[in-house]
Write a structure and sequence with these properties.
5 helices; alpha+beta; 6-stranded antiparallel β-sheet; 210 residues; 4-stranded mixed β-sheet
């Protein structure tokens, strides 16, 4: 039976046999029976490689952090995770540079992980497990952002929207210019807009090519 450790763009955890391109964590969320018992632990929500330096782990081992999995990086960002500074160092540095351009007026030293995590925590949640969303015109959102359409998450990709599923993006609909509810935290939308392009699942390529 699949474990409940696949992350949706809303940040919720579901059980599915589909695999994702990235792993991550937000602390220890499971009990000794490998059941999810909490939504998050701490403010450090990161997205990691699924393979790094030959390290091997038993998923949801007792007392260790809960391994989470994302379809792609756009989903990880929408859920409120950022690149890991260890296994994704190059992506982390690109992310910090884009963060500075977007949010710190490109002045002073690059932000620390703690500084970014504090701001990101405020932007992703309005309560212990209540998502903070906001409204913006769809036409102005960058590729890689996620929006809510009729209660479902859709990826912004070129002139199209792609509906999320655990296995990938199977269909599209045209992007319009009206107001929408944005799922991706506001600060991360700005980071994407400043040039940090999140990696996308291969099934999104037709929408970007169109």
């Amino acid at each position: 039976m699949p474990l409940q450790n696949r992350v949706t763009p809303y940040g919720d955890l579901i059980a599915t046999s589909a695999r994702g391109l990235l792993m991550g964590n937000r602390g220890r969320l499971h009990d000794a029976e490998r059941r999810i018992v909490r939504y998050a632990s701490g403010r450090r929500w990161i997205a990691c490689l699924t393979s790094f330096r030959g390290r091997r782990r038993r998923v949801m081992s007792p007392g260790l952090y809960t391994e989470l999995f994302f379809l792609d990086e756009a989903v990880a960002l929408a859920a409120g995770h950022r690149p890991c500074a260890e296994c994704r160092r190059a992506d982390y540095e690109r992310f910090r540079a884009a963060w500075t351009r977007a949010l710190d007026a490109d002045t002073g030293p690059l932000p620390s992980a703690d500084e970014m995590d504090s701001r990101l925590h405020d932007d992703r949640l309005s309560g212990r497990r209540t998502r903070r969303t906001y409204r913006e015109r769809l036409g102005g959102l960058p590729d890689g952002a996620y929006v809510d359409v009729d209660g479902s998450p859709w990826l912004v990709a070129g002139d199209m929207l792609c509906p999320w599923s655990p296995a990938g993006y199977a269909s599209t609909r045209p992007r319009t210019s009206g107001l929408v509810t944005v799922i991706t935290p506001r600060c991360l939308v700005e980071v994407i807009r400043a040039g940090y392009g999140p990696s996308l699942h291969p099934s999104a390529r037709p929408a970007l090519a169109g």
